[in-house]
C-alpha cells in the first residue's frame, strides 16, 4: 500500500515555547475527544475513510518511525472528518500491529466511525504528548506566501500500547473561527 498524501510529509513542528494564538492553542491542546468538540459546532460529524490497511516500517515517515516502536506492520488509517458535510479535518493514524490485540483489534474495523468514539469510550487511554505544527505555505515558510493550516500530532496509549495520531485542521474547521465575545451585563 503506497503512502497516501492526505497530510503533507513536510510539516513545520513548533517548539513548546513558540507563540500560538490562544484560541488556536485551545483547540490544538484539546485533551478530550476532538470528535466531541466538533459535535458542539455542527449537527453531524461524519468520517470518509480514504485509506486503510497494513504498511511496513519502510512506509513510515522518519518522525513517525521515531515515535513508534519497531513492528513488522502498522495499521494506517487516513480519513476526512466532516462537520455537516463540510471537510474539517484530515486524520492519519498509525498503530503498531502489537497494539491491535484483544478488544483493540476492533481498530482495524472502524470504517466510518470516528476514532475518538472508540478511543474515548473506554478508560484505558492515556496521552504521552501533543505537538503543534503548521503546514508550509507556498513560500516554504509557515504563514508566508500561502495559507498554512494548523496540525497536531499525539502519541496515545491504549492499555499502555502506543498509536500515533496526526490531525490537520482544514480551512473551514471551527478552530479558525474567531472566539465569540462574552456578553457582560450593563454594557
TrEMBL record:
Q: Would you tell me the Gene Ontology cellular component terms?
A: cytosol
One GO molecular function term?
A: chorismate lyase activity
Can you tell me which residues bind substrate? Answer: 34, 77, 115, 167
Give me any GO biological process, just one: ubiquinone biosynthetic process
Catalysed reaction(s) here are: chorismate = 4-hydroxybenzoate + pyruvate
Compartments, as annotated in UniProt:
Cytoplasm
Q: Which Pfam families match?
A: Chor_lyase (PF04345)
| Annotated EC | 4.1.3.40
The pathway that the record names for this protein is: Cofactor biosynthesis; ubiquinone biosynthesis
Record keywords = Cytoplasm, Lyase, Pyruvate, Ubiquinone biosynthesis
Which NCBIfam families does the entry mention? Answer: PRK11655.1
Family statement: Belongs to the UbiC family.
The record's subunit annotation is: Monomer.
Question: What does the UniProt record say this protein does?
Answer: Removes the pyruvyl group from chorismate, with concomitant aromatization of the ring, to provide 4-hydroxybenzoate (4HB) for the ubiquinone pathway.
Q: What is this protein called?
A: Chorismate pyruvate-lyase
Q: Its encoding gene is what?
A: ubiC
Amino acid at each position: 500500500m503506497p503512502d497516501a498524501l492526505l497530510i503533507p510529509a513536510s510539516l513545520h513542528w513548533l517548539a513548546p515555547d513558540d507563540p500560538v494564538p490562544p484560541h488556536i492553542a485551545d483547540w490544538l491542546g484539546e485533551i478530550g475527544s476532538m470528535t466531541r468538540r466538533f459535535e458542539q459546532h455542527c449537527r453531524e460529524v461524519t468520517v470518509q475513510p480514504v485509506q486503510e490497511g497494513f504498511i511496513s516500517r519502510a512506509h513510515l515517515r522518519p518522525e513517525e518511525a521515531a515515535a513508534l516502536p519497531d513492528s513488522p506492520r502498522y495499521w494506517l488509517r487516513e480519513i476526512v472528518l466532516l462537520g455537516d458535510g463540510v471537510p474539517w479535518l484530515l486524520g492519519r493514524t498509525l498503530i503498531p500491529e502489537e497494539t491491535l490485540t484483544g478488544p483493540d483489534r476492533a481498530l482495524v474495523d472502524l470504517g466510518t466511525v470516528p476514532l475518538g468514539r472508540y478511543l474515548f469510550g473506554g478508560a484505558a487511554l492515556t496521552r504521552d504528548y501533543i505537538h503543534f505544527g503548521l503546514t508550509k505555505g507556498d513560500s516554504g515558510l509557515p504563514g508566508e506566501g500561502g495559507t498554512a493550516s494548523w496540525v497536531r500530532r499525539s502519541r496515545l496509549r491504549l492499555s499502555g500500547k502506543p498509536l500515533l495520531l496526526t490531525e490537520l485542521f482544514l480551512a473551514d474547521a471551527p478552530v479558525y473561527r474567531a472566539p465569540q465575545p462574552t456578553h457582560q451585563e450593563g454594557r
